[in-house]
Design a protein that fits this description.
Blueprint: H1 3-18, H2 21-26, H3 29-39, H4 41-57, E1 74-75, H5 78-83, H6 85-92, H7 102-125, H8 133-157, H9 168-171, H10 178-195, H11 208-221, H12 231-243, E2 267-271, H13 283-287, H14 290-295, E3 308-309, H15 311-314, H16 329-333, E4 334-335, E5 359-360, E6 381-385, H17 386-399, H18 403-417, H19 434-449, H20 455-462, H21 465-472, H22 474-479, H23 493-498
Antiparallel strand pairs: 1-3, 2-6, 4-5
Helix pairs in contact: 1-3, 1-7, 4-7, 4-8, 7-8, 8-10, 8-11, 10-11, 11-12, 12-17, 17-18, 17-19, 18-19, 19-20
Length: about 525
C-alpha cells in the first residue's frame, strides 16, 4: 500500500469536494458529480455503511486472527507452523519475521484503505455539516472509524503516516512521531463523541458511548513515549460509559457466545455477521479442530487449527495454568471435549498431533451443525464489551492509587464467572498492593477476554511482552529468538519501496528489509 499515492489521491479529492462554487461551475464534470454526490444524504449514508463493512472485513477469516498469533494466550497449530514458514514466524519471532513477511503486509494493506475511505468522507463532510444533524452524525462515524483503525495500526507498527489533509504540507507521507499520531487519534474520537448519537437502531453503527469507550482505551493503551497515556482521562471516559446505565454484565457468561442472542446488553460494539456469504466470517474455519473436520465437514466444531490456546491459557491453576476451580469462563471459552454425535475423532498422521488439544470455543456456530460447512460461521465478533471496560476502569483506579475500589470492580466481573455469587476464597483482597494488582489483572483479562483480540496490545503496554510470550508460547520458547523490539512489526517492504518518504533507515528497530 503506497501511502504517498493515497495522500496525493486524497488531495485531488479535497480539491474536488471542498473548492469554491466558482471552481465547481468551471471545473470538470467529474468534480461536480462528486460534489453533488456528497450533497446527497442518502448517498453519504451508503458511504458510511460501506466504511463499516470495509472495517469489518479486516476481522474475517485468517486475517482476522493474524495479530492474535504469537502471544502468551494463543499460538498456531503444529501443522500450520510446519507448512507456512512466514506465518510461523509470527509465533517463532525468527529470521523469517522481516519486512517482506506477506502475512503482515496483508494486514497493513487491508487497513489503510479503510482509513482512506474514512478520510475521504471526513473531507467531504467537514465545513458542510452545520445545522444538519444527520450530516454531523455521519461525520462522527467517519471520525470514529478513522481513529479506531489508525489506533490499531499504530499499536502494532508504532510511528505511522497520518492522513490529515489539512496538514499534508507539514506531514507529507512519512512516519509521524507517536505524540502526533495519538493526538490525531484522540482528536478524531473527541469529534466522534461530539457528533455521534446516543443510540442507533442499526447495530452495525457506532454511538457516543462506543467512542467514549474507545477513547478511554486509547488513553490507557497509548505508548508512554507518546506522552498521552493518561489514567485519569481514561478513568473518566470509562466512568461515563459505566454510569450511562446502557450496559450491564449478562448473568450467564456462556450466553455471550450464543449466536441466537447476537447483541446482548453487554455488547458496546460488535462486528455484525451472519451465516450467509458474504456476511459470514469464517472464524470457525480457522479456530476449530482438523480432526473434527476430517470426521465430518458439517461438524460445527471443525476447522483447521490456525489458532489454538497456549497450554497456559487452557490449563488449570493447579497445573501451572490460568483457570481457577469453578470459573464458568473456562468451559465457555475453550473446547476440551471432541466427541461428536457419539464418535471420537482420530489424530491423523502428519498433521502435528495437536488437533485434539484444547481449542477455542467462542467462535463455534451451532446454527450450522449438520447442514452447512463451518466455513459459514457467522457469529458477531465483539470489539468493545462492558466487562472489558470494567476491567480497564479498574486498572485506571489502581494506577491512580484507588486499589481497593479497583479490586471491588474486578470482583464484580469475577462474580459473574461464579454464577453471580463469588466464593470467599475467590474474592480478590482489597488490601493488595498496586504491583500485585498489575500482575493479577493480566491473568484476569485473559480469563475474561481470551481470543477477543486485545492480548498483544495488553502485553505491549504492560511491558510483559517478551517475558510472558517466551515463558508460555510453545513455538516462541522453542525458537528462543523473541526480543523486546518484536513488540512492533516491521514496516512492509512494499511500503518502503513505493513510498519515497519512508526508506530503509526508517524501518523499525531490529528488522531487515528483506
Amino acid at each position: 500500500m503506497n501511502t504517498k499515492n493515497i495522500i496525493l489521491g486524497l488531495m485531488a479529492i479535497l480539491l474536488m469536494v471542498s473548492s469554491c462554487a466558482d471552481f465547481l461551475d468551471q471545473g470538470p464534470q467529474t468534480a461536480l458529480s462528486r460534489e453533488q454526490a456528497f450533497q446527497d444524504v442518502e448517498k453519504l449514508d451508503k458511504v458510511i455503511t460501506g466504511l463499516y463493512n470495509r472495517w469489518r472485513e479486516t476481522r474475517k477469516d485468517r486475517g482476522g486472527f493474524i495479530f492474535s498469533l504469537g502471544t502468551d494466550e494463543t499460538q498456531q497449530g503444529a501443522y500450520q507452523v510446519r507448512t507456512e514458514a512466514q506465518q510461523a514466524s509470527l509465533d517463532k519471532y525468527d529470521a523469517t519475521l522481516t519486512a517482506g513477511n506477506n502475512a503482515l503486509t496483508g494486514q497493513w494493506n487491508s487497513r489503510w484503505p479503510v482509513i482512506v475511505d474514512a478520510a475521504t468522507a471526513i473531507i467531504s463532510l467537514e465545513g458542510n455539516t452545520l445545522g444538519d444533524a444527520q450530516r454531523e452524525m455521519l461525520l462522527g462515524e467517519a471520525c470514529f472509524i478513522r481513529a479506531a483503525v489508525t489506533f490499531e495500526i499504530s499499536q502494532y507498527w508504532g510511528e505511522i503516516p497520518v492522513l490529515d489533509l489539512e496538514k499534508t504540507a507539514e506531514y507529507g507521507t512519512t512516519r509521524q512521531p507517536l505524540p502526533v499520531v495519538y493526538d490525531f487519534i484522540i482528536h478524531d474520537l473527541e469529534r466522534a463523541i461530539q457528533y455521534l448519537p446516543e443510540d442507533q437502531s442499526d447495530k452495525r453503527r457506532a454511538t457516543k458511548s462506543v467512542a467514549q469507550a474507545l477513547l478511554g482505551k486509547v488513553y490507557l493503551y497509548a505508548p508512554e513515549a507518546s506522552g498521552l497515556r493518561d489514567y485519569a482521562k481514561a478513568r473518566d471516559q470509562f466512568a461515563t460509559v459505566i454510569n450511562s446505565g446502557k450496559y450491564q454484565l449478562v448473568p450467564n457468561v456462556a450466553s455471550l457466545w450464543d449466536p441466537n442472542n447476537p447483541n446482548p446488553v453487554e455488547s458496546i460494539f460488535s462486528f455484525q455477521f451472519s451465516n450467509v456469504w458474504p456476511d459470514n466470517n469464517q472464524c470457525q474455519w480457522q479456530t476449530g479442530s482438523r480432526s473434527l473436520a476430517n470426521l465430518n465437514q458439517y461438524a460445527y466444531t471443525g476447522g483447521y487449527d490456525l489458532l489454538l490456546p497456549t497450554a497456559y491459557c487452557y490449563r488449570d491453576a493447579a497445573d501451572g495454568g490460568l483457570w481457577e476451580e469453578g470459573d464458568a469462563r473456562k468451559d465457555a471459552s475453550i473446547r476440551y471435549d471432541f466427541i461428536y454425535n457419539g464418535q471420537t475423532p482420530e489424530i491423523s498422521a502428519g498433521f502435528g498431533g495437536d488437533e485434539l488439544d484444547p481449542h477455542i470455543k467462542k467462535y463455534e456456530d451451532i446454527r450450522l451443525d449438520g447442514t452447512q460447512s463451518f466455513w459459514y460461521s457467522g457469529k458477531n465478533i465483539y470489539y468493545l464489551r462492558y466487562a472489558d471496560i470494567l476491567l480497564c476502569y479498574a486498572e485506571c483506579l489502581n494506577e491512580l492509587g484507588s486499589t481497593g475500589e479497583a479490586v471491588t470492580t474486578v470482583n464484580t466481573v469475577r462474580a459473574r464467572a461464579w454464577g453471580g455469587s463469588l466464593p470467599a476464597d475467590k474474592q480478590w483482597n482489597a488490601g493488595m498492593g498496586q504491583e500485585e494488582f498489575r500482575t493479577k489483572i493480566m491473568d484476569e483479562r485473559m480469563r475474561e477476554l481470551c481470543f477477543e483480540g486485545w492480548r498483544r496490545m495488553d502485553l505491549i503496554r504492560s511491558g510483559k511482552f517478551r517475558e510472558l510470550i517466551l515463558a508460555r508460547n510453545k513455538w516462541a520458547s522453542e525458537a528462543n529468538a523473541i526480543q523486546d523490539y518484536h513488540r512492533r512489526y516491521p514496516i512492509p517492504l512494499d511500503e518502503i519501496k513505493q513510498n519515497d518518504e519512508i526508506d530503509e533507515e526508517d524501518q523499525n528497530e531490529g528488522y531487515s528489509n528483506q
